[in-house]
Design goal:
MacB-like_ATP-bd; single chain; nucleotide-binding; transport; Putative ABC transporter ATP-binding protein; six-stranded mixed beta sheet
Length: 257
């Protein structure tokens, strides 16, 4: 497939979109093209997984789309806001108001309770907590009986659920999750993935997840595959076996056969 092929999400308006996106690190002999003319959109109310071999550019794509890394050229938008050209304060405000993040590390403050960790971004921003929405998020993530516990009193899976609830609490336009089950056992990982899927189906959330795990990707509505910084394929209604079969088409250089 051509690197310039645009892979558009099948549902409604895009929560995020990249058009002709390029990311280059270094110059001369040290020049590395991490993203090469990537065009892709992520539909509202959809769960998308991004997969590819190591070094394919999947985390770089997420970081550029989330405003965590600069774009070398091309366009990246969240809703109707173009990220390219925004100043640091504008990017900070955008990430605070429109984007939720879930990382492999839980990033919880040990001195705060689960509830305080969930509401911390809104407390810092000085925004009012929507109690009805917060209660719904807490119920969906299954933390109702753990809100007064500090991180050390929670299991790894419970801590990641706190991180998920924190990402959802401010009603972001989109959540970016980077290997969210990487530090969890298979049971806890399945719980987190089920929560992310339910947040899309029951709460109308939009989730974009970077993962290397075909089982994790099978929870998504579609999977976008990268190789050598280019989008080379996508799969709708994925199964773990279907994702694994697609991944096996990549040769040692990360290209499709």
């Amino acid at each position: 497939m051509s690197s310039s092929t645009a892979y558009a999400a099948p549902t409604g308006l895009a929560a995020a979109r990249a058009t002709g996106l390029n990311k280059v690190y270094g110059e001369g002999e040290t020049r590395v093209v991490a993203l090469d003319d990537v065009s892709v959109s992520f539909g509202r109310g959809e769960f998308t997984a991004i997969m590819g071999p190591s070094g394919s550019g999947k985390s770089t794509l997420m970081h550029c789309m989330a405003g965590l890394d600069d774009v070398s050229s091309g366009s990246a938008t969240i809703g109707d806001t173009e990220l390219v050209g925004l100043k640091d304060k504008q990017l900070t405000r955008l990430r605070r108001d429109k984007i939720g993040f879930i990382f492999q590390a839980f990033n919880l403050l040990p001195t705060l309770t689960a509830l305080e960790n969930i509401t911390l971004p809104m407390d810092i921003a000085g925004t009012k907590v929507d109690r009805a929405w917060l209660d719904r998020v807490v119920e969906t993530v299954g933390l109702s009986g753990r809100l007064s516990h500090r991180p050390a009193q929670l299991s790894g899976g419970q801590q990641q659920r706190v991180a998920c609830a924190r990402a959802l609490a401010s009603k972001p336009e989109i959540i970016f999750a980077d290997e969210p089950t990487g530090n969890l056992d298979s049971r806890s990982g399945a719980e987190i993935l089920s929560f992310l899927r339910n947040s899309v189906r029951e709460l109308g959330q939009t989730v974009v997840m970077v993962t290397h795990d075909p089982v994790a990707a099978s929870y998504a509505d579609r999977v976008v595959f990268l190789a050598d910084g280019r989008i080379v394929d996508e799969l709708h209604g994925p199964t773990a076996d279907g994702v694994l079969d697609r991944m096996r088409r990549f040769d040692a250089k990360g290209r499709t056969s």
